[in-house]
């Protein structure tokens, strides 16, 4: 499937942390024809295996989940209170459309807020705490909400359909980390007819946004020797963000993690990725430390340790329904991952 179409389908899919089954189904359609085996574990990690000439394992990791919400309470008038799944900025909630998923289908709604006509000026300048917000799904009672399948524990997302923008850019929810998932699929396609010197495991991890939970389990099971994590990270190149607080910028190529809150990249791995990028003339940049964290935080500590690197697509406004990326950067990430896999047997094994 063409990259942009694949990315659109993945981003539009419903998949908050712990509820990524729709995303996994889309990915399975792509990888099953080219994998030797596809397996899922108890948590919801899905791993596609490509058997190589040895049992030594190189891991490609991307997470399937997006930040989301979960219904925590339904009041007598049918308004829904909610908790957050992952790291949200509550300033973006009021007035935002949401989609909730029940056993019988999807239910649309909106996060209500007091309109400016009846609020004081000082109130309008403050962020509304999440616990003071409620979702309106158009019903009149708790019973009507229940008839739609809405109960505590119902998952949801903030709506943000994929839109193409000028200059090979795009806007959508869930680039973090459906861009990484799309890249991982493309990497696997590249080696579909190749017998690699090692076994390639491409893992689509659950629940990264809840504290790297899926990666902790999957990395132990897969037992890789080397890992590359494909991610989407914070781009700060927009008004109001000073340079020293901007982890990376859009359109300058794939971002390589030096250190974040979960891992300090081994100088050996960082040097390797930089040299492979330079050799293949792939645009790249170093992500400023110590912003963010990824599945690499758990992977590199698995068993007796895993040599791990992180490649990321810079994205503006991530963890929101209208993130923006440059597909040029995504293409750079795919190219570097492919080039690195080709070099790993000669340089790192």
TrEMBL record:
Binding site residues for Zn(2+) 2: 176, 209, 319
Cofactor, how bound (note): Binds 2 divalent metal cations per subunit.
Cofactor(s) required for function per UniProt: a divalent metal cation
Transmembrane region(s): none
Record InterPro entries: Peptidase_M42 (IPR008007), Peptidase_M42_aminopept (IPR051464), Peptidase_M42_dom2 (IPR023367)
GO terms under biological process: proteolysis
Keyword terms of this UniProt record: Aminopeptidase, Hydrolase, Metal-binding, Protease
Binding-site residues for Zn(2+) 1, renumbered to this chain: 63, 176, 231
Keyword Isomerase among record annotations: no
Entry annotated with the keyword Lipid metabolism: no
Top-level lineage group: Bacteria
Active-site residues per Swiss-Prot or TrEMBL entry: 208 (proton acceptor)
MF-aspect GO terms: aminopeptidase activity; metal ion binding
Stored PANTHER family: AMINOPEPTIDASE, AMINOPEPTIDASE YPDE-RELATED
Family (UniProt): Belongs to the peptidase M42 family.
This protein's name: Peptidase M42
Species whose genome carries this gene: candidate division LCP-89 bacterium B3_LCP
């Amino acid at each position: 499937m063409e990259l942009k179409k694949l990315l659109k389908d993945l981003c539009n899919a419903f998949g908050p942390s712990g509820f990524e089954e729709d995303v996994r189904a889309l990915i399975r359609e792509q990888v099953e024809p080219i994998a030797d085996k596809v397996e899922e574990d108890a948590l919801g990690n899905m791993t596609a295996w490509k058997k190589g000439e040895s049992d030594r394992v190189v891991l490609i990791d991307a997470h399937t989940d997006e930040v989301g919400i979960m219904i925590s309470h339904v009041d007598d008038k049918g308004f829904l209170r909610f908790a957050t799944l992952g790291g949200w900025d509550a300033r973006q909630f009021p007035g935002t459309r949401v989609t909730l998923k029940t056993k019988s289908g999807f239910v649309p709604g909106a996060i209500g807020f007091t309109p400016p006509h009846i609020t004081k000026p000082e109130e309008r300048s403050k962020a509304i705490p999440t616990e003071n917000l409620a979702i309106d799904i158009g019903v009149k009672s708790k019973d009507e909400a229940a008839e739609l399948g809405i109960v505590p524990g119902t998952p949801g997302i903030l709506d943000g359909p994929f839109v193409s923008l000028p200059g090979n850019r795009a806007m959508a929810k869930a680039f973090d980390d459906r861009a990484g998932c799309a890249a991982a699929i493309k990497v696997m396609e590249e080696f579909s007819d190749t017998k690699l010197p090692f076994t390639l495991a491409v893992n689509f991890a659950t629940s990264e946004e809840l504290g790297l939970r899926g990666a902790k389990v999957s990395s132990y099971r897969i037992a890789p020797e080397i890992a590359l994590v494909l991610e989407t990270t914070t781009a700060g190149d927009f008004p109001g963000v000073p340079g020293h607080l901007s982890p990376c910028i859009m359109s300058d190529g794939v971002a390589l993690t030096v250190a974040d809150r979960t891992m300090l990249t081994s100088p050996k791995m960082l040097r390797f990725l930089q040299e492979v990028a330079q050799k293949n003339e792939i645009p790249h940049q170093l992500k400023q430390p110590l912003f963010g964290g990824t599945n690499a935080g758990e992977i590199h500590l698995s068993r007796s340790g895993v040599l791990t690197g992180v490649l990321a697509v810079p994205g503006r406004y991530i963890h929101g329904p209208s993130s923006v990326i440059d597909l040029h950067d995504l293409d750079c990430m795919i190219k570097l991952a492919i080039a690195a896999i080709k070099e790993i047997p000669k340089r790192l094994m």
